[in-house]
Amino acid sequence: QVRLEESGGGLVQAGGSLKLSCAASVSIFGINTMGWYRQAPGKQRELVAVITSGGSIEYAEFVKGRFTISRDNAKNTVNLQMNSLKPEDTAVYLCNGRDNWINRWGQGTQVTVSS
Question: Where does residue 37 fall: left (phi above 0), alpha (psi -120 to 50 degrees), or beta otherwise?
């Protein structure tokens, strides 16, 4: 069974940085789209950034210029470098792996940005 495990969340002051990592229990070479989503209390889950196996990247408008997504197929990891964090970035961040044979979510990691 494919498992995705996030790490790297925590508490940071506004303007600070965090790096999230998503480790997969299988090779992500065969998973076309890997991505990060977030869900704040009382709000719907929203896309943060996705990256395909071909290297195409899509960012949500609210993170452009601040967050960077990357994937390492050799290490089966997907990372999200988050800079210039804002209080409104506070949420549970979830990793997702999606292809025609899979749509898997991790448990999520909490990111809290204090003002």
Answer: beta
Q: What is the pLDDT of residues 35-66, one digit of tens each?
A: 999 999 999 999 999 999 999 999 999 999 99
Backbone angles phi, psi at 86, to 5 degrees: -120, 155
- Distance from C-alpha of 94 to C-alpha of 105, rounded to nearest angstrom: 7
Report d(CA 87, CA 14) in Å as an integer.
6
In this structure, the chain runs to a length of 115
Q: What is the DSSP string of 1-65?
A: ---EEEE--EEEETT--EEEEEEESS-GGG-SEEEEEEE-TTS--EEEEEEETT--EEE-GGGTT
Place of tokens 């940005």: 113
Tally of CB atoms within 10 A around 69: 21
